[in-house]
Design brief:
The structure holds three protein chains of three kinds. By secondary structure, chain A is an alpha/beta fold. Chain A has 29 helices and 37 strands. In chain B, helix 3 (41-51) packs across helix 4 (55-62). The radius of gyration of chain B is 17 Å and the shape is elongated. The chains are: A alpha/beta, B alpha+beta, C alpha/beta. Chains A and C meet through strand 4, helix 2, helix 14 and helix 15 of A and helix 13, helix 14 and helix 15 of C. The complex binds flavin mononucleotide (FMN), iron/sulfur cluster and FE2/S2 (inorganic) cluster. Chain B: Keywords: 2Fe-2S, Iron, Iron-sulfur, Metal-binding. Chain B: GO terms for molecular function: 2 iron, 2 sulfur cluster binding; metal ion binding; NADH dehydrogenase activity.
Amino acid sequence: MSVRIEIDGRIIEAKAGDDLLSVCLSHGIDVPYFCWHGALGSLGACRQCAVRVYSGPDDATGKIVMSCMTPATDGLRVSVADPEASNFRARVIEWLMVNHPHDCPVCEEAGSCHLQDMTVATGHNERRYRFDKRTHRNQDLGPLLTHEMNRCIACYRCTRFYRDYAGGRDLDAFGAHDNVYFGRAEDGVLESPFAGNLAEVCPTGVFNDKGWSHDYARKWDMRAAPSICPHCAVGCNLFVSERDGRVRRVQNRYHGALNGYFLCDRGRFGPLHVVSPQRFTAPQIAGAVVSEHDAVVAARAAIEQGAIGIGSPRASLEANYALRKLVGAERFFAGVSDAEAKLVRRIVEILRAGPGQIATLSEIEACDAVLVLGEDLTNVAPRIALSLRQTARGAERALATQKGVAHWLDQAVRTAGEGRRSPIVLATPAPDALDDVASLSLRLDPLSIAAFGDAVATALAGGDAPNKAVNIANVLAASERPLIIAGASLGAAQIVEAAAAIVAALGTKARIVLIAPEANSLGLALLGGDGVEAAAAALEADVARNVIVLENELFERAPRGAVDRLFAAATTVVALDALTTEISARADVALPVAAFSESAGTFVNYEGRAQRFFAAVQPQEYAPASWRRLAALGAGDWATLDAIIKDLIADQPELVGVVGAAPDASCSCAHGKIARAPRPLSAHTADDRAGRDPAATPKPDPDSPLSFGMEGARGADVPAALLTGYETHGLHSANAVTRFEEEIGGPLRGGDPGARLFKQGDAALSPAAPFAPIDGHGPLLVPLDDVFSGSETGRASALLAARAPAPRLLLHPDDAAALGLAECASVMLDGVACAAPLTLEPKLARGVVAVSVGKLLPRGPLRRVVVEAAR
Amino acid sequence: MTLSPQTTQAIRNAADSHGGAKAAMLEALKLVQAAEGYVSDAHLAEAAAKLGVSTAEIDSLATFYSHIFRSPVGETVILLCDGLSCYLCGGDAVRDAVMQKLGIGFGETTPDGKFTLINVCCIGGCDVAPAALVGPDRKLVGPLSADDLTQLIGGGR
Amino acid sequence: MSETPLTGRAQPDREPHRFAEWQRLGGYDALRGALKRHSPEALVAIVEASGLRGRGGAGFLTGTKWRLMRKAAEAAGEGPRYLCVNGDEMEPGSFKDRLLMEALPHQLIEGAMLAAYAVGATEVIILVRDAYRAAAVALTRAITEAESAGLLGRNILGSGFGLKMRLHASAGRYIVGEETALIAAIEGERPVPRHRPPYPAQSGLWGRPTTVNNVETLSAVPHIVQNGAEWFQKLSRTEEGGTKLYGISGRVNRPQLIEAPMGTPAGELIEMAGGIRDGRKLLAFQPGGGATAFLQEADLDVPMDFAHVKKAGSSLGTGAVIVLDDQSCPVAAIGRHARFYARESCGLCTPCRDGLPWVAKLLDALEAGHGTQQDIDLLHMHVELAGPSGRSFCDLMAGAMTPVKSGLERFGDIFAAHLKGHCPVGRS
Ligand SMILES: Cc1cc2nc3c(=O)[nH]c(=O)nc-3n(C[C@H](O)[C@H](O)[C@H](O)COP(=O)(O)O)c2cc1C
Ligand code: SF4
Ligand code: FES
């Protein structure tokens, strides 16, 4: 229902019962605020959002209220400009300034500080408090975040985000009166993998990105580009900011359907791998640095002799396509195990066939019953785990609504909800960070998870099934929006098929999420190609003599034996990468390429959404984008990204949607190209403008409508997919995002970016291929993912690495006892010594051995391993 | 030093009687304080573990409430009222006298560890003002006089 | 029938009665009668008719509150419902609930049981401030006694009505007495006020329907139920029924608690407390605790009930009369209060958290003779901004600024004199 209210003479349509502050902000009316947050709702603590309201036409006096705590009711008259209300708002700033240090010149936040913006907005500019300030001592919160408590204005956003929204329990509010303190009980690392968001949630400079703080540049001295997180299949939208050619920090880029206001720490700090010492910068032949010319000549020679190409789920769609073009489709292979290549292709098929709708993150949050099969979401697709925490609150929200509690009164909703939780069932092998919000956690081995999923599907179809499965089937059947989540991380195709069967039984009301291993796994699968084992076999069968490996540490993604066979069979191995890897080190010819932050391209996320990332840093000549490198090696004649995309969709018309991921380079706004740099404010940029700083005279960017300079369009003039910041008059912090949302928490104006490539029902689902039997002896291998480790790129980020746990090897105590193994034992897996000592985990499923993936073991198909004591 | 089995059991019982671990946090803090005099970091963590809450959560309450002591206190804690009624009845003189006699200010403990002096808000003893609460049972004493501090610190000093 | 129904039975040494003894004195008769004779609705009607106003400070009609609870609870469905007894009593100058809990625990328990029966509560939780250890001991024992006598638990006296009762011991902090903070405190959350709506009756303790009543309010209930609304009305000297516990403290000869008919003027109360100390003259008094405006000589005849004191420009609050004589410096007195409220702010909302400590420092400076005209202007500014409630989150700040406002109004000359560095009234 909508209501009409009048705000300073303007008539506005609002949703009945929404809070007035949200209504004002989504209509472009500035009301200062601190404690309110689009995702955290209203609290009423800061008292900054005061306005005068008149209850109706007959009310001549009105009263001052907090707009964030006042529902919009029909006929309400509101005055933001009211002198008494504006004076009160200025006095609130004066109070906040009583203890706030006047340290803007040395504060990281300055220039993008919500407190600064609000101070200027209210016009408070004279200090009258003449007594001593209260001071706090700061804490060391670990490698990711700074802590400067004196800057705190007690808006409680940090604890509301960290505890209420993200489920963390080691950050809290301490003390009382003007001595409230936000931190941990003692110094130490903030545990939550979402802690990094505090840097953006905090409206002042209490919490900040420590990496950025150490390699600091003012906001107005940094250029930012729209980007996509390269660290998992969710594809959260990022701003990547740089100065002097060096990426300094990553921030959330709002996306209404996906990441909303928040990232995980892997996404925020992982991308800093691009500034790692592990960057690969000089061409090599046989391990020795050579000239670019020599290396290119050697690579060309290898290609001319005939080569197969091995693509990568972490390289862009365009790079993989260029490689396929270079070697030919029949000689193009996916840079993952055969099993994974097959499984991800099958995932694509299931997603396309329907009947389940692929759930966006915002849709996940609206689902009312969830079954997770096999995925350790917090570690595999962390942002989805954060969404599920909101899904869990659905039942609570429903009860609160029934009691007449406004949805934005978050604390009241929590209480009124009486602790009710929407049903979330986790069937996973290992203890799960989401167990605290799950209504049922089942610890099962991968095959039992698949069997359990099949039983649920059977029960839904009316067949006989065990009680537990029947109960869950009933819950799913009774729900309005059931959601099934599964994926590839256990390497078990059975689980994905079971998920598909459940969705098929539930019909069109069902939502589905199938999680592929990496940022562009789906993009790679769309280009086809078998895995590394097949590639090795092709070389062994003399299909070609040489191999080109694209941006891929194959040892992480395919069995070591298969990769070794590849090296043995190939005469010349050519590697292209932005990082030094075991592959690049062993390759005969290695050529550096641009990292994701230096090039433009497309990733396809778990929803089948093609999303474009753009260069934040001008690419170096020695490290062009992979697809340019491949073009130069003979793949095609593409001068621009748009040109290669044009060829791609001509070759593969079903991918035509890729074009729509973002406007092409010809897009021009009211002020021409879109500026990556904020408005010129500092002396440094005056130099730039005079052309005195040669480095600052930017080259044009042929691959996007963005310019590296300061001139051009920004902010509201810019299409959503090309936003380089929330540039708005008077608002310089992340809070300015409200100006860009259609409604609070809704899509970006002009629609959320990205192009969905799949239409449900546009492909028929072929019957599942028969599963290869899991032969051999020993427990089933369960790969353990970790949010802070990720793949080779994530581990190259020093910030993320500082949070990564030591690799782990887990067995259930009874299984260990049966094998004669004790806690801390050294263990061999299939005869190879495992670097991690044994940990006994009573909460682990029986019949499995869980091992950290990446460093210790490659991902791979579900298999058994022989576990025995090291000799 | 770990908490005694009795205190531990009492903390567990509190979780049953108070409607869950969270609701029992303050009671747990009071139990620890009753047994140990104050709530040390170690005991705080232990109580949190017994209840299955985080140290931060329980410390969030411990630091909010003025009568939970997070640092060591003397054998006898004197909570001296600094409310208006006591002030009107000569509370400041009593305050000065006891500070002088003990040689400490508010929030401090005598070097011999016998007394801690803390100022608190009105303790509902306005009919016996100036008033104070003394000792672990928060015994109400008053009217106090600057000339005779026996009610506060006994005859010992 | 005693004229002091609330305190008449208290033993001189404040030793609480044992159960048997209390029963001999008529204890629990009202409950036994009510469970037999009255429906919960009827009980609500009796209390409504009595005109009983909440004694926690705001003076809200108890019967109305109970009716709202019954109504709101309908929407909440099956499950526990709560009655919280507010025994936090930390308003400066107040010491009335202490006696009721320490010396007369069974009276409170009976009142709480009747209230629980009336509003349909399934559990009573009595929150007691930490300073009142004797009260906690007395209540704990009394609850146990009542349980053993079959007055608590399931199916009480065969009536089908069941009730649990327990104590929640607090640990300091004035804000815990604010009803929504009290609910948070019992839940184990930081005792910070919560927004209303939703009101406790709608969504209170753990989201369930909840009523919060003051100790004195509930202690009056057995008498009303036993003797009728009319009797209760007649106890009073004004339209507001009952007797009231007045606490007289400060510069009087015999500070004490007095149970007197509602509407007894302050002048009489001060006389009963032995008159102004040392034969001095009255400067001013706060009629109802630290958060009430000063009254003076001319107001000594004002009947001390909610309506009349309000009309006189102050409020009855807790009925804690704090007396300042002509040698008590009001700047210092207000400063005491200001420091109290600043220290007891929960720290949630900006005006209170950061404004009150500023106010306290301004008053300190003025008291010490270091003040400036700007300091006084700033005090006025805080008075204005805190004035109409709703600007701070809860009523603590508005209460805190009340004595400052009335002090500036009534003692402007004394404030001005402090600017020159001397106090015209202070004893020293
Ligand atoms: C800051 C603040 C402190 C309060 N402290 C108390 C208190 O200690 N005891 C009390 O009974 N009511 C106190 N109240 C009033 C309660 O919020 C509530 O109105 C009262 O307990 C209701 O009981 P009644 O209707 O029986 O008066 C306080 C209110 C505020 C705003
Ligand atoms: S006025 Fe604000 S800070 Fe003060 S006690 Fe109430 S909510 Fe807390
Ligand atoms: S934003 Fe409204 S009170 Fe903070």
